[in-house]
Amino acid sequence: MSRQDETGQAGSIFHVRLRSSANGGAVTGDWYVRPTAERKFTEWIGTYGSLDHVVIQLIEETDAGQETVLKTWTKERGEVVGAL
């Protein structure tokens, strides 16, 4: 995936990642615009957030490839800032 946003500028990619178990696979959506990724994070909580063992994360990946977890959701804890 190119690290250029729709304006051609290099920048972060925002991922929304859903895991259904600690060692299971993940479904990930990728966006260049943080508000869009945050909206999808909220939508995924509405769709999948009540399921047992589901973890939904909003992650920022810098153009250097470093990932930072911005928000995490679990049924048991709700939304927390950062990683669990």
Keywords for this entry:
5-stranded antiparallel β-sheet; 84 residues; alpha+beta; 18% helix; single chain; globular; 1 helix
Question: Overview of this structure, please?
Answer:
With 84 residues, the chain is an alpha+beta fold. The protein has one domain. It is 18% helix and 38% strand. The chain has one helix spanning 34-48, and strands spanning 13-19, 26-31, 55-61, 67-74, 78-81. It has a five-stranded antiparallel sheet with strand order 2-1-3-4-5, with helices on one face. The longest helix has 15 residues, at 34-48. It is globular. The mean pLDDT is 88.
Main sheet: strands, sense, barrel: 5 strands, antiparallel
Strand order in the largest sheet: 2-1-3-4-5
- Total domains, how many? 1
Query: For the residues shown, what is the average pLDDT?
Result: 88
By DSSP (H or I, 4+ residues per run), the number of helices equals: 1
Radius of gyration: 13 Å
Which shape, going by the Cα principal axes? globular
Topology diagram in text:
Elements: E1 13-19, E2 26-31, H1 34-48, E3 55-61, E4 67-74, E5 78-81
Antiparallel strand pairs: 1-2, 1-3, 3-4, 4-5
In a few lines, what is going on in this structure?
The protein is built from one helix and five strands, in the order ββαβββ. It has 84 residues and is an alpha+beta fold. It starts with 12 loop residues before the first strand and ends with a strand.
